[in-house]
Amino acid sequence: MRSLYLVWVICLCTFVSVPAGAGLQTYHDARGKVIKLRQKPRRIVSASVAGDEILWLILKKAESLERLVGVSYLADQEKFSHISSEVKAVPFKVGKSLETFVKAQPDLLVLASFNRPELIQQIEQLSLPVFVMKDFKSIGDIITAIRSLATLIGEEKAGHLVEQDFVSELNLLKKSIKGEGQPSKVLAMVGEQGVMAKETLFDDMLGFTGGVNASLGLGLTGWPRLGDEALISLNPDFLVFPEEGGSTSELLAKLSRKASTKSWNAVKKCQLIRIPSRNLIAASPFILEGIRKIKTDIANKDLGSACGK
């Protein structure tokens, strides 16, 4: 875990708080742009599920959830969000139109690097205070977001507690991995030909499960699309799919018909790991749910027997 802590420390250099006179704090976001705040923001709005979940966790610890007045329009959808029930009462769901941001009257608006660039530009033209989080490519990036957002909203103590809980759970998962034999090769596909390669949260998740990314040997990053020959060479032991994507038997039948996947060990042994989409794409401490599920299924010797269900 020492190397993981080093990554977290290095990541923090992208967020800087600079004293700028009495009562004024200056921050730099992931783009290097400056945001100035004179006081604790009281009307915080998030426009991404990652921001929704991290801010909710921090403000819950701080017993100040009333300060979160707006969340993304996906926040109350169970497929995408871990806090869908908890944010039903949040006054504003933003993102579908520019008007939703204006109505929320934020004194701090938190966006993610993957929010549409034109949306970010339009919001800034309205002179709304915008902070853009950096990319989420690793567990360390989640830690960075917790720390930077906690500082930004003046809740460093609560942020430290959220981080502490998260790291403690990661440590327990890491320690419980049994180092027997070669680690299982695990693959998450994106559509028909795409995979989640290095520099993705999925790849980093696997380090806490006892598995390794089946695509590592290709030396690719991000979410590349592969040709049939490259796919055949991966031969994963386990495949990870969102549980919303049809039944396991239907997926297996489809994979068994494709020349590029029918010879895979995962297909032959019916070792498909099904997890909710929100756990596969989580960019917050809720990523732990996906890690636990993958880890449990890798260790499950009877996983293939559930294929027809």
Mind explaining what this structure looks like?
This protein is an alpha/beta fold and 309 residues long. The chain folds into two domains: 2-171, Nitrogenase molybdenum iron protein domain (Rossmann fold); 180-306, Nitrogenase molybdenum iron protein domain (Rossmann fold), CATH 3.40.50.1980. It is 38% helix and 17% strand. The protein has twelve helices and 13 strands. The strands form three sheets. It has a five-stranded parallel β-sheet, sandwiched between helices. Strands 9, 10, 11, 12 and 13 form a five-stranded mixed β-sheet that branches. The chain is elongated and about 60 Å long. The relative contact order is 0.12.
In short:
Helices cover 38% and strands 17% of the residues. It is built from twelve helices and 13 strands.
| Count of helical stretches | 12
Share of residues in strands: 15-25%
Domain tally: 2
| Strands, total number | 13
Low-confidence stretches: 1-16, 18-22
- Helical content class: 25-40%
According to CATH, the fold-level topology of the largest domain is Rossmann fold
Q: Helix/strand-derived class?
A: alpha/beta
Q: Which shape, going by the Cα principal axes?
A: elongated
Chain-averaged pLDDT: 89
The radius of gyration over CA amounts to 21 Å
- Order of strands across the main sheet: 6-5-4-7-8
The main pleated sheet reads as: 5 strands, parallel
Distance between the termini: 38 Å
